[in-house]
Amino acid sequence: MTDNLQLTQLVEACRWIGAKGWAPATGGNMSVRHDERLCWLSESGKDKGSLTTRDFMQVEIDTSRAPSERKPSAETALHTLIYRLYPQASAVLHVHTVNATVLSRLVKGPELRISGFEMQKSLSGQTTHLDTLTIPVFDNDQDIDALASRIACYAQERPLNYGFLLRGHGLTCWGRDVAEARRHLEGLEFLFECEMRLRQREKI
Predict the structure, then answer these.
(1) 185: closest CA among 43, 18, 2?
(2) What's the rounded Cα separation, in Å, for the pair 158 and 179?
(3) For 197, phi and psi rounded to 5 degrees?
(4) In the chain, % of residues over pLDDT 90
(5) Which strands form 132-138's sheet, in the order they lie side by side?
């Protein structure tokens, strides 16, 4: 897929995310891989629902540095980490949905486990609702390099298949292209909302 088409599809995904209110107050950040050395990452401080291709900058995957003097997202190192860990990943989406943010605080352990939902099959490789879907949950940290290091350590022992939650922060997910990343985001958000509603009913 050409670089321009990838960026165009990412911009469309950003508008879709913005319309759903999943990246409020200029929050969130999105990227696509350019090649094995560079990715395109959204510029910091801009409303994600109104981005254009000009609002993305190139970032070095190995160093997380932007060759230009523009300011990339605060979570740049998390995007580049995913591209380093998984060469097949070509798009990364980071959002601040209410369900992901609240659920990440309700989960006290290091992982959220979900099973029994047909929508689990929206995630690549999932073939049945009988499987248990495991989503890692990491404590939030303003030191992004330290956070990235903890995530990398986790990934050495267990795969990060679709995404992870940052406690009190939001969801980061990815895919082999923008369409798959978008499907993973929508599927995970649906599952998070179902899990939230189940937990609320259990308290009644």
Answers:
(1) 18
(2) 25
(3) -65, -40
(4) 86
(5) 56-60, 38-42, 29-33, 91-95, 170-175, 163-166, 132-138, 111-115
What number of residues does the chain have?
A: 204
pLDDT of residue 204: 54
The residue ranges of every structural domain in the chain are 3-202
For residue 125, give the nearest of 137, 136, 134 by alpha carbon.
134
Give residue 190's identity as a one-letter amino acid code.
Answer: F
- Cα separation of 164 and 161, whole Å? 9
Distance from C-alpha of 118 to C-alpha of 135, rounded to nearest angstrom: 17
**Which regions of the chain are under pLDDT 70?**
1-3, 204
Write down the CATH number for the domain with range 3-202. 3.40.225.10
Task: Give dist(CA 44, CA 73) in Å, integer.
Answer: 4
The model's pTM is 0.94
pLDDT tens figures, 146-199? 999 999 999 999 988 899 999 999 999 999 999 999 999 999 999 999 999 999
Virtual torsion, Cα 113, 118, 124, 128, nearest 10 deg: 80
* CA 89 to each of CA 7, 58, 105, 133, 175: distance values in angstroms, whole numbers, following the listed order: 15, 16, 27, 19, 5
**Which residues, 6+ apart, have CB-to-CB distance to 153 below 8 Å?**
none
Q: Strand pairing partners for 133? A: 114
